[in-house]
Amino acid sequence: MQEDILINWSPQETRVAVVENGAVQELHVERTFERGLVSNVYLGKVSRVLPGMQSAFIDIGLERAAFLHVADVWHKPPEGESLTAARNSQPQIPIEKQVFEGQSLMVQVIKDPIGTKGARLSTQISIAGRLLVFLPQDDHVGVSQKIPLEQRDALRKRLQVLAGEQGGGFILRTNGEDSSDAELAEDIAYLRKTWARIKDASMRLPPKSLLHLDLNLLQRVLRDLASDFTQSIKVDSSEQFEALQIFAREFMPAAAGKLQHYKGERPIFDLYSIDEEIAKALGRRVDLKSGGYLIVDQTEALTTVDVNTGGFVGARNFDDTIFKTNLEAAQAIARQLRLRNLGGIIIVDFIDMGREDHKTAVLTEFRQQLAKDRVKTMAGGFSQLGLVEMTRKRTRESLAHLLCEPCPTCEGKGIVKTVRSVAYDIFREILREARQFNPREFRVVAAPQVIDLLLDEENQYLAGLSEFIGKPVSLQRDTTMGQEQYDIVLM
Predict the structure, then answer these.
(1) Is 182 among the domain residues?
(2) Which residues does 478 contact at the CB level (< 8 Å), separation at least 6?
């Protein structure tokens, strides 16, 4: 796999595209005034405890109160037992016995605010470095599960020696597998220094203060996105290129040599038609090379993906056509999930297949493609209805939610009432008003297309309605109104 990372920077917005073998796989967008909050540490103030929901609302200075569930409240595990094991073996302490209203609490954001939901918090603080994750409240030393099992014990022992007796736990990240003792020791020192600054700020600053700001998107590219497969990291800003070089030399020297300042005349995203890919990723329909297509619908509760054969008729028989379309769809769906950053529950409706070996092959291909995702995913098998249910961890807004807003005309429904339906709503509203009030005249203010229908095809019924209520009905166009909007003015 060949991977390139392209960075398009402006003072208002940073855009990052991860390109694998010439195809865009991931898009990351960070706006200066809308930076994500995940990993930020705050000194919060408990504003409300809800025993029935086993949760609490914490004021951290945002527009909406953040949310702390009892499962995310940290408490020291028994000697020699990890936090996960302690949670599984011991009964959970009710949240009302752990926090109280007005209490100051150090918390970390683990999920950004999404839709109408506030940020989700944890009282277990973790600070990510280049090679390690520091757990200042814990003494556990662990190793990423992505590192082969046979290497973990030796790495864990090395890390325990380097961590010493100063307290705090560490988890070795995947990219720290081949690191030297000097590199690990440097990361440990950096993380301990960061934690010391956070503790000092928590003693000096008032509640609702930001104690620790996570790295910006440019810096997270080097920490989280760059890997051994990354060939180049192209940046189109000389200022940001120099800043990244300094940051990389200090914290990520392996990535420093991959940094390149892009000086081409064409915009950097034009190299791989990335703006076109963004436009496609905001649409419902995704065309497949075979002639089939996907329909992606995102709702508040879940995302559905429907696979269709479209114009693909195949070369042999119908079963072969369906199998090939589903195989191609499995690859495309996994890519679309990453590209659109879709999370939560996802239901995939592959085209029905009669052969079990075809089902197994499609499911195997789908899981192999999902394994390339940096975000944790879990896919089940085919249900009795032929659906595949899966989940993808959601930590930030999807691409559509980030770049778009609900249509002001349909208010996000995707449909509007027909002109005739609106006209009949107006007739019923006039009748209701006539029973309650006795004005001199009723004036209908509505969109031009509604008024045109009332003057043309529905003119006879409008005249009959006017005669029935004994009052004149006048009409007025308003070009600023949407098709469903209207107003009945009592004159």
Answers:
(1) yes
(2) 445, 446, 447, 448
Longest Cα pair distance anywhere in the chain, in angstroms? 94
Residue 68 to residue 258: CA distance in whole angstroms? 40
Pairing mode, strands 66-69 and 120-122: parallel
Instruction: Encode pLDDT of 59-84 as tens digits.
Output: 999 889 999 999 999 877 666 555 55
For the chain, what is the radius of gyration of the CA atoms? Answer: 29
Give the Cα separation of 255 and 233 in Å (integer): 8
The candidate with the shortest Cα–Cα distance to 18, out of 291, 295, 375, is 375
pLDDT band for position 243 (cuts 50, 70, 90): very high
Q: Is 21 left (phi over 0), alpha (psi -120 to 50) or beta?
A: left
Q: Helix, strand, coil: what percent of the chain each, to 5?
A: 35, 25, 40
Residues 355 and 325 in one domain: yes
Q: In what order do the strands lie in the sheet with 293-298?
A: 285-287, 293-298, 302-308, 344-349, 388-392, 377-382
Q: Is the pLDDT of residue 126 over 90?
A: yes
- Distance CA(213)–CA(90), nearest Å, equals 34
The residue range of the domain holding 245 is: 3-34+216-274
Q: Mean pLDDT check: name the lowest of 80-94, 235-249, 419-433.
A: 80-94
The DSSP 8-state label assigned to residue 207 in this structure reads T
Angle at 430 between CA 428 and CA 432, to 5 degrees: 70
Per the DSSP assignment, residues forming a β-bridge with 407 are none
Pairing of strands 55-59, 230-235: unpaired
Amino acid, res. 246: I
Does one domain contain both 394 and 430? no
Q: What is the pTM of this model?
A: 0.71
| Residues whose CB is less than 8 angstroms from the CB of residue 294 and which lie 6 or more positions away in sequence, other chains included | 285, 286, 288, 305, 306, 307, 308, 329, 332, 333, 336
Residue 117 CB neighbours (<10 A): 13
238 part of a folded domain = yes
